[in-house]
Amino acid sequence: MSAAISDPDILPSRSVLQALPQPIIVLDEQHKIQFVNYAAEAFFGASLSVLTRQKLDDLIAFGSPIISLVETVVQRRAPMTEYRVRIGSSRFGDERIADVFASPLSDVDGRVALLIQERTMADKIDRQMVSRGAARSVTGLAAMLAHEIKNPLSGIRGAAQLLEQTVSSDEVPLARLIREETDRIVGLIDRVEVFGDERPMEREPINIHVVLDRVKLLARNGVARGITFYEEYDPSLPPVFGNRDQLIQVFLNLVKNAAEALERTQKPEIRLSTAFRPGIRISVAGVADRISLPLEIVIEDNGPGVSPDTLPFLFDPFVTTKTNGSGLGLALVAKIVGDHGGVIDCDSRPGRTRFRILLPVASGAFQQSSYEVSTK
Length: 376
Fold this sequence. Notes:
Elements: H1 3-6, H2 14-19, E1 24-27, E2 33-36, H3 38-44, H4 48-51, H5 56-59, H6 65-76, E3 80-89, E4 92-104, E5 112-118, H7 120-166, H8 172-193, E6 204-206, H9 208-220, E7 228-232, E8 240-242, H10 244-261, E9 269-276, E10 280-283, E11 291-292, E12 295-301, H11 329-339, E13 343-349, E14 352-359, E15 371-374
Parallel strand pairs: 7-9, 10-15
Antiparallel strand pairs: 1-2, 1-5, 3-4, 4-5, 6-8, 9-12, 10-11, 12-14, 13-14
Helix pairs in contact: 7-8, 7-11, 9-10, 10-11
């Protein structure tokens, strides 16, 4: 470690910086990295000794606004902030969105400290809340229109059945088409009406691995026949307080989507994993206490991935990438997860798509939290 790093004028509270969950980078006047904390090492996937041999210009993608932010801070000798900056680096594949806070360390030289607050999880949870709001809008629309639409559809279907018996053989397909399309519309309305079901569901402590094993058994003998499954389970995971049938519906829907995405993939694989992540709590309007979501369940496939244009709206009603899809499957998944007090997000790129569900533990199980994401 160089003398500059141990200089108390540069880092008077180095142990405090190490304890922060946000990445911290200290630069000298030539933009050479003098110090990074543990969170920065994890963020860039490199050790302190490796990073301190580089300049910021080498670490961050060319043309990044972070470079100009540092230069402006040095010139003005005042702290500044850039919000929602896209950070690209050779150290990780995908661009990450973050708020970057820069502050001079001294009034007499060009040393600057950077703090990076990644926006990924907060934005995903925000989108989840927006999706729930959209689902509630669909709920209100369904409640208002379902009865009025179903009544005339019933009459149209009955008339089509009579026509099938009386028209010529050449016209039977047309009459059958009317009946089948009527049934399809009724089925769509029935699916939308599920969003309006606000009855309290029966819940109990459930071993999530029992649910996943059931889903795998159903999938391997049905929609995912011929696909290789891998499991990475944490056997010490505490139970979730939920409804077994609804959780099976959630994960079976996700596995079914993964299997459909793998139809043209050589050596298709679906990976199921669970872990305890004592890090994220969310604040939800109407709930006094923050909700801890330490149970992580991931459904991952090696398919072609989701279009970047579709990804932010994936859980909105009527958004679909399937030719004949209704766009309600993932919206229903998000609703059920939300009813369990959890959140779901998707991270996708060609060759890897990950649906991650975060759920609370059953009442009475231990809860830990070290990092909070507020969505109020």
